Amino acid sequence: MAALAAYLWLLSPDLRIVQPIETTRQAILQSLRQNRVDAYAAVLSLDPVTPPTPDTWLLCGHLLDVNGDNVFDEKDIDTYLRFLHFVDGSGNITHDLPTDTNADFSRYDLNGDGFTTASGGHRERFDLGRVGSMQYGAASIQR
């Protein structure tokens, strides 16, 4: 818990300097998933709860910008699709999912549950949009 609090403070000067310590505690407690702390959700809660823009979508934007050009665009989507689906011999992305059963906690695991393949298992929801959620707190996942 202390390491997660320190990490949240490292990522968010506002949480570290402006907000009371109780806000950090709530950011961690509000991220509980099945009575376990979800550090990934706590980190995502640092982004503001406004529609995403390049100026406000700080953590989620870095997560989605896989090619590092500071823009989330079709190039990043193509990279995700090529990682999450099979690519045939002609370089076309298929609709087939990989069948690897190893847990994968890489940047392509957008919800932090370790599953990026068709290996089955439990799939956790996550909140990249943040609208309707609470900054430094619980996510409100829209369906």
Could you please describe the fold and organization of this structure?
There is one protein chain. The chain is mainly α and 143 residues long. The protein is 34% helix and 3% strand. It has a two-stranded antiparallel ribbon with strand order 1-2. A hairpin with a 2-residue loop joins strand 1 (32-33) and strand 2.
β-strand number: 2
Largest sheet: 2 strands, antiparallel
Q: Give the count of helical stretches.
A: 6
Strand arrangement in the largest pleated sheet: 1-2
Secondary structure: helix percent: 25-40%
Which residues sit in consecutive blocks of at least 5 with pLDDT less than 50? Answer: none
Roughly what fraction of the amino acids lie in strands? under 5%
SSE series: HHHEEHHH
Average of pLDDT: 80
**Could you tell me how far the N terminus lies from the C terminus, measured between alpha carbons in angstroms?**
30 Å
The best one-word shape is: globular
The secondary-structure class comes to mainly alpha
Radius of gyration: 17 Å
Brief rundown of the structure:
With 143 residues, this protein is an all-alpha fold.
Chain-wise SSE layout:
Blueprint: H1 2-11, H2 13-18, H3 21-29, E1 32-33, E2 36-37, H4 39-44, H5 58-64, H6 74-84
Antiparallel strand pairs: 1-2
Offer a few descriptive terms:
mainly alpha, globular, 143 residues, 6 helices
